[in-house]
Amino acid sequence: MKAIKKSLIILFRTILVIIAFILLYVVAVLGLSRIPVNSDVAKPEKGIEIYLLSNGVHTDIVVPVKTQITDWSEKVKYQNTKANDSTANYLAFGWGDKGFYLNTPTWADLKFSTAFNATSGLSSSAMHCTFYKRMEEDEQCKKITITKKQYEQLVEFIENSFQMKNGQTLKIETNAVYGNNDAFYEAKGSYNLFYTCNTWTNSALKAANQKASLWTVYDKGILYHYE
Predict the structure, then answer these.
(1) How far apart are CA 194 and CA 121, in angstroms?
(2) pLDDT one-digit tens code per residue, 91-149
(3) CB atoms < 10 A from the CB of 92, how many?
(4) What is the pTM of this model?
(5) CA 153, 155, 156 angle in degrees (round to 5)?
(6) Which stretches does DSSP call E strand in the chain?
(7) N or C: which end of the chain has fewer CB within 10 A?
């Protein structure tokens, strides 16, 4: 009986710790995402137009394919997509968990092992790159005008998120693309409960000295500062 009682006490304490962790995590997610960073940044009259794009869960940073600063098509090649459309004007970058990207085309395909590896940081990451001909502003797509220097800082951040070999990005050979204009590349870092795809986007905005959350793991934590 004593052994059973001891086991129940341990189980009860474990459950309490888990509940406390979940509550603290939720409070942190909701609270810290509302704390602004770079809220007083001045908007330049002229500059380079980038976009903050959300699908309701995941966010991308969208930039011009070609500027005087860089030609992204040299690292993220048109021919790596099914369409091979060299008339695209914009390129979206979305960092995330490699296993989730490649093995979960829909939420119905989500496996426990994929979710566990992603939240625990045990899997590797990938960069999802999508070409667009045009961008249209709406509630899920925010245009941001930044200076040349700020864009250079953003370019550096994005480039440093890729795994490179001999100065070239490493394309992931897979049929698990989302359409005709996207491809996946090997990326640095690991996705986890505290650093998600949206945390990466938020960090990219910070690198470019743009409005962002102190910390966030979900898309609305960023979009809140662009309402």
Answers:
(1) 9
(2) 999 999 999 899 876 666 767 677 777 667 778 999 999 999 999 999 999 999 999 99
(3) 19
(4) 0.92
(5) 65
(6) 36-37, 48-54, 59-64, 90-97, 125-132, 141-146, 164-165, 168-169, 182-187, 212-213
(7) N
CB atoms within 10 A of CB 145: 14
Helix (H, G, I), strand (E, B) or coil at 42: coil
**How many other C-beta atoms can be found within 10 angstroms of the C-beta atom of residue 40?**
6
CB distance 156 to 179 below 8 Å: no
The answer to whether residues 93 and 158 touch, using CB atoms and an 8 Å cutoff, is yes
Angstrom distance (rounded) from CA 192 to CA 201: 14
User: Beta strand 125-132 with 182-187: parallel, antiparallel or unpaired?
Assistant: antiparallel
Whole-Å CA distances, 26 to 22, 56, 115, 128, 193: 6, 19, 18, 27, 11
Torsion of CA 10, 11, 15, 16, to 10 degrees: -30
